[in-house]
């Protein structure tokens, strides 16, 4: 009886140990993590930001958010608001759960502070006072046309319709997808990944003033059309008795 009891205990332990190695049983490495518990900046950035902003925040379809100049003019409150709520009417979605996204408030903070910790440079604008991120003054469309001719036309061509060095900047679809603030940010920061300089170097030795930036943004905004994109052609009506 004692031997049988020991044998049953042994067999039970053997079977229990074997269950953990049964074919098809999940391994610890294959167990899906709770998305709300992920706190790794690199993972959060890769899965939420790199699709538009590129690997390490540069070289994507959207603004290079790892650009030290951008991080120097956009404070934590600005970045937090954009990440959390997105930018209405543009391709930038909201990521915070409170705004319909998938990220917790903690994860948003990890992205906000991680961007600055990984890519910010305290001396990026050393000795330079950059234009403010948000305009403190209204732009003037008429002056903006002249500003465009001075600082932008050499690359983007006359009237912003494209030149030898850069494409059209008044394309209706482009203007429909960016806000005035985004235009201002682009003028200040540039797109170094595409060869577009920041506000200091459109004309070397002649940095743009905040008012000039506001003026050229006003001029660009005035080029928007009510309905971007080409309308569908009106299909010809079929002849009588002919069915499509």
Give the biggest beta sheet.
Answer: none
> Any idea what the CATH architecture of the domain at 36-119 is?
Orthogonal Bundle
Low-pLDDT windows of residues: none
Strand % is under 5%
Q: Output the structural class.
A: mainly alpha
Keywords:
0% strand, mainly alpha, Cytochrome Bc1 Complex, Chain D, domain 2, elongated, 244 residues
Describe the protein in words.
Among the domains are: 36-119, Cytochrome c-like domain (Cytochrome Bc1 Complex, Chain D, domain 2); 141-221, Cytochrome c-like domain (Cytochrome Bc1 Complex, Chain D, domain 2, Orthogonal Bundle). It is 42% helix and 0% strand. The protein contains 11 helices and no strands. It has helices at residues 2-19, 41-48, 50-53, 68-73, 76-85, 105-119, 141-151, 153-156, 172-176, 180-189, 210-221. The chain is elongated, with a radius of gyration of 28 Å.
Briefly summarize what is shown:
By secondary structure, the chain is mainly α. Helix content is 42%, strand content 0%.
SSE layout and pairings?
Layout: H1 2-19, H2 41-48, H3 50-53, H4 68-73, H5 76-85, H6 105-119, H7 141-151, H8 153-156, H9 172-176, H10 180-189, H11 210-221
């Amino acid at each position: 009886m004692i031997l049988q009891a020991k044998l049953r205990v042994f067999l039970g332990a053997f079977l229990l140990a074997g269950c953990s190695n049964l074919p098809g049983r999940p391994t610890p490495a294959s167990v899906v993590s709770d998305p709300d518990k992920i706190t790794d900046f690199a993972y959060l950035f890769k899965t939420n930001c790199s699709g538009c902003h590129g690997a390490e925040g540069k070289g994507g379809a959207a603004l290079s958010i790892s650009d030290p100049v951008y991080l120097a003019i956009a404070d934590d409150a600005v970045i937090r608001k954009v990440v959390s709520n997105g930018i209405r009417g543009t391709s930038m979605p909201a990521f915070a759960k409170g705004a319909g996204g998938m990220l917790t408030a903690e994860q948003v903070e990890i992205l906000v502070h991680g961007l600055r910790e990984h890519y910010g440079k305290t001396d990026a604008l050393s000795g330079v006072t950059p234009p403010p991120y948000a305009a403190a003054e209204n732009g003037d469309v008429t002056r903006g046309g002249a500003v465009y001719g001075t600082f932008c036309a050499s690359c983007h061509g006359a009237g912003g319709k494209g030149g030898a060095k850069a494409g059209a900047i008044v394309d209706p679809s482009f203007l429909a997808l960016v806000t005035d603030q985004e235009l201002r940010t682009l003028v200040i920061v540039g797109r170094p990944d595409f060869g577009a300089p920041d506000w200091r170097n459109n004309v070397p030795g002649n940095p743009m003033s905040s008012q000039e930036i506001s003026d050229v943004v006003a001029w660009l905004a005035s080029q928007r059309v009510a309905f971007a994109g080409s309308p569908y052609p009106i299909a010809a009506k079929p002849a009588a008795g002919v069915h499509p």
